[in-house]
Amino acid sequence: MHIAHHLWPQIAFGLILAGGLYLFVTEKLRIDITAMLILLALVLTRTLDSKQALSGFASEPAIIVAAVFVISGALAATGVTEHIGAWIGRASGRSEWRTIAVVMPMVALLASFTHHVMVTAMMLPLLLKHARDRHLPASRLLMPMSLAASLGTTLTLVSAPAFLLANDQLQRIGSEGLGIFAITPIGVALVVVGTLYMLAARWLLPKRSGEGGEDDYLRLGRFRTELLVVPGGQWATRTLAEMQKAIGPSVQVLGWLRDGVRRSDLTAGSPLLGGDVLLVEASADELMSLHDDPGLDLNAIARFHDTLSGEGTPQLVQTVVAPGSEFIGRSIRELDFSRQFHAVVVGLWRHSGPVAERLSDARLREGDLLVLWGRPSRFAELATHHGFLLLAPFAGEAKRRLRAPLALAILGATVLIAASEWLPAPLAFLLGAVMMVATGCIDIRQAYRAIDVRIFVMIAGVIPLGIAMEQTGTADLLATGLAHLVAHWPPLAVLLVMFTAAALLTQPMSDAATVALLGPVAISLAQALHLPPTPFVVCTAMGAVVAFLTPIGHHGNLLILRPGQYRFGDFLRVGLPLTVLIGFVSAWMARWLWLKGPLLPHFG
């Protein structure tokens, strides 16, 4: 009876863990909900008390992850990431090998302080366009980019939740925690090895260009609009190239009108004159930014500004041309929008098919999305008109380009404060996130939207799992079994065992959940072997973060799956040798850093 009572915590934990693993792997429930269920089960079975169970929400990893999301969002909102992405595109040249050689280190660097999935999402359309312009197969570029984004998370402690959790576990046992750059030597080695491997093993990558879905993917929400160069404004007399460099690569100039006449003799080097009209295509956010640019005006607004009546501050709204609408087949000019509806059409998005050169000549089709500018009191009439569906506020958000230097400065200061340990890392990053909002680099609504709540909640939920694993003695039990097996193995081999276990477990599970489970085992194993725990925990976290065996192991890989037309086997073929190589490099570097092993192999 006494033995059963003694074993009860381990049995309860085993059952909860089995149920949790089943839900994590099958994804019958969202990962954050699974994490919360595990947390509640641990409390209800008395495995943990409520304070321990809720400690994850106030934990350093959860706070840093939320702050990093906000900082990433601010870099995107000020156009910093997009500019860097465009620069990478320009530096990539025409050849496949040069693109890989430039893209991988740069993307890794970008991912080291921001969220790697955001970096992958930002680079995806840029690389697709790059591949199409240079007639390269997209599938040969997207996988190296996605792998580099994951490798980049090993350059600092803060960009992958797994390392933050590992550090948290080390601090809980009273060991000295890791500094923000403690794992950087390993990260640098991995980025170098990963880039060289991708260059050498390019022939393993499939040759498929994302022809099918690529166009739609790129055109998602590209609006046709006309820009007027404001006489005496900041762009008058400056060249088109200067303006394009400032407003970013995602605004495409399709035509140039001077005195109402289309001019094909004007090039990027020609100066803009006040009154010139540019025919452009831009995303929703860009359209909003152009609307806010003092040197430019949306042509329709400039022309009809004084004729619009009604109350309220003018604003942008979007509407869809209804099926069977009486406007189908008629041009915007014929409809005389400004008189009929007291609103002007400033942008048009069409799912497929050509659009007339001038916006006013565009003949409307069913499903066309129109961006309108007018006064709120007049939109009521429009909303009830059966020719249109769904009148909604325009979804674009202006890029805060002028604040880009400020956003970079805040990021630099945050990293410096955390690295010099002037403030603890969670506070430094929290300060950085708050400064981004306070200085207007990102608006508060955008900041909350930037935080991926699922990841925050999941981290808060898996931390108690690690604590329970330790407290119930399950970690010790597993570690004792492992220690018997590897008692006479060299440390390098033991580090490889931990890396491999994490690499396999992280495929169906998240990196954070993997470290929550295996971290305590690594610590107990190190104590049983009378070795410092740090290298064992770090190798476990490395295995959880950079094992590229399946597309489901990483969210970034899921993003590129469809545009690159990859199959499941492609990841295994490219990823298996790479993961073996990375495992060996991680173990070798960890042994050198924390177990005083040699850096260079000596033979004989």
UniProtKB/TrEMBL annotation:
GO terms for biological process: potassium ion transport. Residues 303-388 form the RCK C-terminal domain. One of its GO terms (molecular function) is monoatomic cation transmembrane transporter activity. One of its GO terms (cellular component) is plasma membrane. It comes from the Bacteria. Its main location: membrane. This is Di/tricarboxylate transporter. It comes from Thermomonas haemolytica.
